[in-house]
Amino acid sequence: MEDSVAFIGLGAMGSCMAGNIRRKIQASATLYIFDIDSAACEGFVSKFEQFGPIEIANSVEEAARNTKVLVSSLPNAQAVRKAYLGDLDGCILTTPNSERLLLDTSTIESSLAREIAVKLSEMGVGCYVDTPVSGGPPAAASGKLSFMIGQTKPRDSNSMGGRIQHILEMMGEPQKLFWCGGIGDGLTAKLSNNYIACSVLLVVAEAMEIGVRGGLDPELLYEVIHNSSGQTFMGDILHAAQKAYRQARNVFPIDLMIKDLALIVVAGKENKVNPRMAQMALNIWHEAAENPDVLYLDLLKGSKP
């Protein structure tokens, strides 16, 4: 069992994931944390210090220096590149340690993940693995995330894969750890999944709009769809969130939807696929982002004719 872990990025997802690590590692083990928002770090300590020691680092390098495991949850490719490679593509992790695991849960280009993995391996500072997640803040809080892992399935608990599995099971369900092959393959799986999710949400929204404008009660229409051939996973989880919060502010802001769709378009072109639906969906989400009334998804509310 690891005697310390570092966690970088304490946003809506990261703070929940790091919290579950702090709860589940040994009480004597130290959790090192870093976020560019110092208030996020201080708030995290106040919330989770009861479970064991937490130290706030002043940089990614400092957080990683005294541990063999670092987990990151960052908002975009630029943040990931800066965290691991620095501003000028010089490795920011200067302490050599070939056994250090660097598990990045961010959603970025597969090609960038491979670039980072090669550079860090060449410098002997650690093994970078893409481990993107699915499930959103509710699953992050409950420790029931899905992980798509850019590694082969481990043969034993003492291998690198076994160490990865041990850490990820602190944040996700064992049956939802998907071993996708090599570096970057976890991200390819994640982007393929998000292609469907981002597009289906638009179909659900337009279908609900047609029904509501046609005079149907939105709750009734949802029940019809939920119990018929139009039922979708994304429609169901969004409905559940909106029932709880009335506005889906904890589900998925549109700027992240746009980011993921842009990555999907790039991935399609890199793999010689013309992602026509993704491009259409991206254009629609760009239009939505310009409307202040729909910065967050709210399919139950509907719009007035």
Automatic annotation (TrEMBL):
It comes from the Eukaryota. Transmembrane segments: none annotated. Pfam families: NAD_binding_11, NAD_binding_2. One of its GO terms (molecular function) is 3-hydroxyisobutyrate dehydrogenase activity. Keywords: NAD, Oxidoreductase. GO terms for cellular component: mitochondrion. This is 6-phosphogluconate dehydrogenase NADP-binding domain-containing protein. It comes from Penicillium cataractarum.
